What we know:
The complex is a heterodimer. By secondary structure, chain A is mainly alpha-helical. Chain A has 14 helices and no strands.
Amino acid sequence: MTREVASPVKPPPPKKQRWGADKVYTNLSYLAMVLPGAIWLFLFAYLPMPGIIMAFKDYKLARPPQNDWIQNKFIYSLIHSPWVGLENFRYLTLPTNIENTLLYIRNTISYNLLFMVAGLVLSVALAVIIFELTNRFFAKLYHSILFLPYFISWIVVAYVVYALGSSGGIINSLFTAVGGGPIEVYKEASYWPFIFVIANIWKYTGNGSIIYLATITGIPRELYEAAAVDGAGKWRQFTQITLPHLIPVIVLLQILAVGRILGSDFDMFYTLPNGAALVKDATYTLDVFVYSMLRSATPLGYPAAAAFVQSVFGFILILITNYIVRKTRPELALF
Amino acid sequence: MTDITVKPAPRQVVNFFSRRKHRDVLAVSPRTNIALNLLLAFFCILTLIPIYVIFISSITSEASLTANGYRLWPEEFSGLAYRFLFSQGSIVMTAYKNTIISTGLGTILSVIMVGLYAYPLSRDNFKFGSFFTFFAFFTMLFSGGLVSYYMVTRQILLLQNTIWALFLPSAFSPFWVIVMRTFYKANVPNEIIEAARMDGANEWRTYLQIVLPLSIPGLATVALFSAIGIWNNFFNCLLLVDDAQYYSLQFTIYTTLNNIRFLLENADKMQGLVNVSELPSQTFRMAMAVVTVGPIILAYPFFQRFFVKGLTIGAIKG
């Protein structure tokens, strides 16, 4: 999605085209090819978009009368529910709720920042180290092993947390063996930031390094040779050659990450704590908060208001980040 | 906003692992090399330990697991959990069936939809190319939010409590569309397509007979990732399925772990209500986790050979 610097071979200037039968036929064929995907996008991505107005309505499920032209319960209820302005948002900021709302927003943002920094540093480091290894076989072996967790579901990781961290788990056996107190991960919130960061690193570092490895592989060898001749050490070569080449990819990935800063890896945050209510303060992110409100008896307007904040602010953030990048380094902007 | 077009990569993308030539001049010193090897070997062991723990506790005898807790090397082995798991035609088997069916159908659908959607976007003579690129890309930036999505999938698309709920919401991805578009541009020369058109093949025939065979590595990568995505998917089932008949594998093993943890922690409060000894044994649970990741780990050595290639080609720009 990055912009290209320049194509080595210039495409011939397009001839002046008229809309002959042939062109119409070609474009109709193309449209037919695009159709299934476009229908999916319409149904699963665009159809829910107008529903965002639920955040400003007192949504109540109503049965459409027999003669009404809308027979779908959801659409009918959505249209006929009264507008309540910012009432749903006010609920989230009531004195009794404001603390939780802010805590979950803070959790979401700080976990995302931690993951962004840890992911970036470790993935780049892994890519550089793997590239420096002289033995291809081992390089490949290490990379395959470190990539493997990417394919393992968070639910299985929840089992691992249970096997390692529960009262009969390995970590507790080790701690009690050296005379330490028992660690109850499902009862003590302060362990969870560590668990999430470690789990995130475990799962995503190998996958994250692929894109950097591919970029490093594409850097012309001559640059390094020239630098080595001039007496630059490995560190100098990294900061002066490797890093500048990685910057476009890094910027691109970080823009996308900033857009998702109010979102989270729902499966991880929801399944790893295993529904333990005592650690809620450290494990709830906005996603989990919205989901839990959605599934409890609260009026749907409340989770809708939280979800509205999530999508709209995420969208605004990505626009702002992209705007700043475009102003400073236009060639790195996403769009 | 509209100029999000991706031009083909100017550089030849080299698969790093297939490089033969040694970088003698630039190679790190042997001592550093050994240190780096040791470092990575250490992290590899750390990475594998969790998977190992799950596996080893699934073949531990229940008695030794209860007595000693989880261990890196059990005192007594037992295959009882697996015999139990496969003997009863229970929830695990139903969930296995649902997951296999939805993974199969979802993968086929996603390869067809992504492959077909991305191809016209890679062609210069598609009049609506930039519109449909934006149509897909915009969904990566903005969404209607979970509540609205929940209502639409349940009330309008009527997916609740159907097998469709397990794979249809994951059967397409704008991200892979952008990767595949780049793949087509980089790997299918325009001249070949033009030649086929000259010979009178229409767009569909050109796509099926000329473009498709050249795009196997890219489409295989899409297939692989969507297969694993649907196999590992938990959210679709959580959101849309309430009927145990349609539970997916991940959801089933999650609820098992969740119920047991809850019951064990509250066992004292429910004296007489549940008999803790009647709960599925610990080894049985670990065996469930093993059969969930088993197929992926077994298939891993076979597919990891080509996805590095497929990924680097798309990922360099995606």
